[in-house]
Amino acid sequence: MLKKIGVEQLTVGMHLKEFCGSWMEHPFWRTGFVITDPKDIKTILASSIKEIWIDSSRGLDVPAGQSAMTESESEEQVEAELRQAVSSQREVAPVSVDVEIQRAAKICHQSKQAVISMFQEARMGRTVDAGGAMQMVEEITDSVTRNPGALISLARLKTADDYTYMHSVAVCAMMVALAKQLGLDEAQTRSAGLAGLMHDLGKATMPMDVLNKPGKLTDAEFSIIKTHPEEGYRLLLGGKDVDPMVLEVCLHHHEKNDGSGYPNGLKGDEISLFAKMGAVCDVYDAITSNRPYKTGWDPAESLRKMAEWSNGHFDGKVFQAFVKSLGIYPIGSLVQLSSGRLGVVVEQTTKSLTTPCVKVFFSTKSNMRIVPEVVDLSRPGGTEKIASREDPAKWRFADLNELWSGLPQAPW
């Protein structure tokens, strides 16, 4: 039987079913386990969580005489509140990127720690808790709904050492944004996000020296890495009530539209919509991120390169929707304006994909830094436009990421 109790009532031997409160406040990424270590109780008591659900059929019950709310009593308590709801839709108010960036940074940090724990448990052969992961997806979805550019752009700032874990967070966020662009419903959008979060789970079984090799893989090593979709699929099958779409993306996110992908060489309509979405998001984050063997490409240049591959690699409609979800010049892109000033894209605008907000900070005419100024290229009567994409490696601005994010370094 499920019972809601105060955290102070927790004892070793109880089965912790679920925390009450936001996932961001949870001391563990997952739930659904028996408390065996008193240190876990101390960790919970030190958090802001005040109540939890326990399953007395799978662990110790509360002692006789102690208060506990049953599931039916809890349902009666909230039923009145539910009746007052005008709609079941999640209402999330949009905000500007500079407002969302701090909240997105916290979500990135928490999500990275959760994914590390998820991978560690998978390496030890434990069942992956999709329920705990879904709470993560809800937080990421809300951030993307408030402002899609903030979290997606921050997640790109991962270090080479963080890549495996933050890649999952980044793909989750992009899958959510792409699902919204494609007009998928709320349930499908959550499934897309969860699929993005879990798509590379199979890498937890890969040899660490191969996974983190700071150079090009040999043919034999690449053959090992190419087994990660099937390994991830196997790990996910061991869980309970796994979303079929999550399994689909995990197994087929390396398939290509022309049939040259792996593991099954599927092509065209043989590949599901969700797997096609996963392929685009996976590649974009891979080529824009710093890896042990290469520096990530500029976001706008990455989209240009992907467009060159799109016929054979990606589904055309999915790729076009992906570009619309990020903008032709995604946040963080270095561009030169028609005035000769260099700037970094800080926000998309609603008028056109080619008229974002750009923070200018350098004059190519005087070859000097200038006082930073945000220019809204969509403003009526404006005369400036983007003249060209610029290669950050050519200019070597050490503070380029700080200019658009406002953060001195990645917060993880």
From TrEMBL:
PROSITE patterns: HD_GYP. It holds the Pfam family DUF3391. Residues 142-338 form the HD-GYP domain. SUPFAM superfamilies: HD-domain/PDEase-like. This is HD-GYP domain-containing protein (C-di-GMP phosphodiesterase class II). It comes from Rhodoferax saidenbachensis.
